């Protein structure tokens, strides 16, 4: 868990150093690319000196990519390639796929909820931690194969994985109207 | 498959149509969102995305944006506040303007807003509290959890709450939801760990001198019905050097309880955590150790006055309860058993729910505590019937009651904005075709004529920068400015 988060930071750092944000199209993802490294420096100060080394490592691995399919709320498919080590949340943002990420991958919200379309692929993932399960508790339209996009990190075995975004509005009508039990 | 495809094609055509519709219309769509918490900002974001001609103003009665992300989310949950990055990007969109220090009801009325804008979305939440309505509720030393939370989060309205943490060692919290758990954690956590957060300076100072050692979290029902989530529970159970007491007898399950657990993942995981805690750890606290007691099946009957009758709370008189199935809903509710007991304490925090407050001219369902609405469309009573209140919408707690997490507002806003889009397509909003509304300019003129000093997003950024600077001096994430005067003065610089 710690290690995977660490390498994510590394990837973010590297992106911040090498990529020039495209300001002509101010989409969320570009802002993220600019903001996340800053955020990392502020909040994870003790780690940042070594994060650069990790970025190097991540850089070597980046040549290797897997293919991932996102199925959006309207059922439309988006085929993308994702470098090994990158989270599905970041991958979605890089490719302008509408996956929310309110807490920017810090495991404090459930907005990057994705549903793994095939059980076969779901079983290839490491079990969710208690912390991820705590957040999944609050996800809308939770299924047996639900995960948080920020916790699904691209690895070779996941090549070909399909991730569906929950049809939020439809589920809201069911889940959102529970009166407070008091 | 081809059927699905053709459906999708229709859907896309409809989307295109609605975008074209609003962009062909000669006037911009003037939208005002009241309240700049998660419900307000998500509404703005969705509105800007759905309608290219929409110009959206978001107003707040405070000089600061973000609502409960600033004044509700606990100071030791900085990750939860990261969402403000997203909200600030929305505020900086060229078609969006933030106007702080503008209060609906006193700076501008609802009918004025409806004159100025094509669409008004109310997302001002719930700024009051439910009451127990039992004897002694007005004794000093009894606060709502909301007030206490606002106090430690530096909300200017509760700057001077001054809860007395020095003359008692025992606090009773009524309620077992996440707010109750937050409050318990703040009272019990070593202050060293809070010192680097954005907790208000006055609260940190008071907590450092606190004599509180024991906190009781009291619920009317059992551990299966506790309203908290696993994350918050896990956190409070993990507070350093804390003795936690849960009676194992309270954990016994009835067949009905089993059924409730089976159908609810959150309840199941909360129950598991409580059970595990009840059977592990020492059976007695060590001397001087802080204590957290989970008390189930007790409902407050009245508050006890201090012996000298000085009007200060000295304890709570509880009635033991049992669960009974409610005929209509099938839910298990707490009913009194006629057995009573007292719990002595010097401070009571009521965490039994927030309550929305209506403004003049706004239909309001006092029983449910929400604005009557269908998917965000406000309904009004006219000649005995409920009809749509043209151009008026709600989102967030005002629409669905004070429950849920930040993300709930994302879906809530999606729904409200979908209703607005649908109404625009159907031509329900007559004002969009007949005449141009003054929008932003009109609002600013009106506020200027009333000498309301508007705080822009740029002004807020001055406050933000100063708070961060003050925080750095004290090795904190942020040192909030906590009085209206300080906030306004800095904004005006």
TrEMBL record, chain A:
Pfam families: Fer2. Residues 66-169 form the 2Fe-2S ferredoxin-type domain. It comes from the Eukaryota. InterPro entries: 2Fe-2S_ferredoxin-like_sf (IPR036010), 2Fe-2S_ferredoxin-type (IPR001041), Adrenodoxin-like (IPR001055), Adrenodoxin_Fe-S_BS (IPR018298), Beta-grasp_dom_sf (IPR012675). Its cofactor is [2Fe-2S] cluster. PROSITE patterns: 2FE2S_FER_2 (PS51085), ADX (PS00814). GO terms for molecular function: 2 iron, 2 sulfur cluster binding; metal ion binding. Keywords: 2Fe-2S, Iron, Iron-sulfur, Metal-binding. PANTHER family: ADRENODOXIN-LIKE PROTEIN 1, MITOCHONDRIAL-RELATED, FERREDOXIN/ADRENODOXIN. This is 2Fe-2S ferredoxin-type domain-containing protein.
From TrEMBL, chain B:
It holds the Pfam family Pyr_redox_2. Transmembrane segments: none annotated. Its main location: mitochondrion. Its EC number is 1.18.1.6. FAD binds at residues 39, 68, 104, 397, 404-406. GO terms for molecular function: oxidoreductase activity. GO terms for cellular component: mitochondrion. It catalyses: 2 reduced [adrenodoxin] + NADP(+) + H(+) = 2 oxidized [adrenodoxin] + NADPH. It is found in: Mitochondrion. Its cofactor is FAD. NADP(+) binds at residues 176-179, 220-221, 232, 404. Gene3D superfamilies: FAD/NAD(P)-binding domain, NAD(P)-binding Rossmann-like Domain. Keywords: Electron transport, FAD, Flavoprotein, Mitochondrion, NADP, Oxidoreductase, Transit peptide, Transport. The keyword Mitochondrion applies. Residues 30-190 form the FAD/NAD(P)-binding domain. Belongs to the ferredoxin--NADP reductase type 1 family. This is NADPH:adrenodoxin oxidoreductase, mitochondrial. It comes from Ilex paraguariensis.
């Amino acid at each position: 868990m710690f290690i995977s988060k660490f390498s994510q930071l590394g990837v973010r750092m590297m992106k911040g150093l090498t990529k020039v944000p495209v300001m002509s199209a101010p989409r969320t993802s570009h802002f993220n690319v600019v903001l996340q490294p800053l955020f990392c420096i502020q909040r994870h100060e003790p780690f940042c000196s070594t994060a650069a080394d990790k970025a190097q490592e991540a850089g070597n691995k980046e040549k290797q990519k897997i293919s991932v399919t996102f199925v959006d709320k309207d059922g439309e498919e988006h085929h993308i390639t994702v470098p090994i080590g990158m989270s599905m949340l970041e991958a979605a943002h890089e490719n302008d796929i509408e996956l929310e990420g309110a807490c920017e991958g810090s495991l404090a919200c459930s907005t990057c909820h994705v549903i793994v379309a095939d059980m076969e692929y779901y079983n290839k993932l490491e079990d969710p931690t208690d912390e991820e399960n705590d957040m999944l508790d609050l996800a809308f339209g939770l299924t047996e194969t639900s995960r948080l996009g920020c916790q699904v990190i691209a690895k070779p075995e996941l090549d070909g994985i399909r991730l569906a975004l929950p049809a939020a509005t439809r589920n809201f009508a069911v889940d959102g109207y529970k009166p407070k039990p008091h | 498959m081809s059927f699905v495809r053709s459906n999708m094609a229709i859907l896309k055509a409809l989307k295109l149509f609605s975008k074209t519709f609003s962009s062909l219309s000669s006037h911009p769509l003037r939208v005002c969102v009241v309240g700049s918490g998660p419900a307000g900002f998500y509404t703005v974001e969705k509105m800007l995305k759905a309608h290219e001609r929409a110009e959206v103003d978001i107003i707040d009665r405070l000089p600061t944006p973000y609502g409960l992300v600033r004044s509700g989310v606990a100071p030791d949950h900085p990750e939860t506040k990261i969402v403000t990055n997203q909200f600030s990007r929305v505020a900086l969109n060229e078609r969006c303007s933030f106007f702080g220090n503008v209060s609906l009801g006193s700076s501008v009325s609802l009918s004025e807003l409806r004159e100025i804008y094509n669409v008004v979305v109310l997302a001002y939440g719930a700024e009051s509290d439910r009451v127990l309505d039992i004897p002694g509720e007005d004794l000093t030393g009894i606060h709502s959890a909301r007030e206490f939370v606002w106090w430690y989060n530096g909300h200017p309205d509760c700057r001077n709450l001054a809860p007395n943490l020095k003359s008692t060692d025992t606090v009773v919290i009524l309620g077992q939801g996440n707010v109750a758990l937050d409050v318990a954690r703040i009272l019990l956590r070593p202050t060293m760990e809070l010192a680097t957060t954005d907790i208000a300076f006055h609260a940190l100072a008071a907590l450092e001198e606190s004599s509180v050692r024991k906190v009781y979290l009291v619920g009317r029902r059992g551990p299966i019905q506790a309203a908290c989530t696993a994350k918050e529970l896990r956190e409070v159970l993990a507070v350093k050097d804390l003795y936690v007491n849960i009676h194992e007898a309270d954990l016994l399950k009835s067949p009905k309880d089993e059924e409730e657990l089976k159908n609810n993942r959150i309840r199941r995981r909360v129950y598991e955590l409580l059970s595990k805690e009840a059977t592990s750890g020492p059976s007695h606290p060590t001397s001087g150790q802080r204590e957290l007691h989970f008390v189930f099946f007790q409902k407050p009957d009245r508050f006890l006055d201090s012996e000298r009758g000085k009007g200060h709370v000295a304890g709570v008189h509880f009635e033991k309860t049992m669960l009974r199935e409610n005929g209509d809903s099938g839910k298990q509710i707490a009913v009194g058993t006629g057995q009573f007991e007292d719990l002595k304490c010097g401070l009571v925090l009521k965490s039994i729910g927030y309550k929305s407050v209506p403004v003049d001219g706004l239909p309001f369902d006092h029983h449910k505590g929400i604005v009557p609405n269908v998917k965000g469309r406000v309904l009004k009573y006219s000649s005995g019937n409920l009809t749509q209140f043209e151009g008026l919408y709600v989102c967030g707690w005002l629409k669905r009651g004070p429950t849920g997490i930040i993300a709930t507002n994302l879906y809530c806003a999606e729904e409200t904005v979908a209703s607005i889009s649908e109404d625009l397509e159907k031509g329900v909003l007559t004002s969009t075709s007949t005449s141009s509304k003054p929008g932003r300019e009109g609002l600013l003129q009106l506020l200027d004529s009333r000498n309301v000093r508007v705080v822009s997003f740029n002004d807020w950024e001055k406050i933000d920068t100063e708070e961060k600077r003050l925080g750095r001096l004290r090795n904190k994430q942020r040192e909030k400015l906590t009085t209206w005067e300080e906030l306004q003065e800095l904004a005006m610089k």
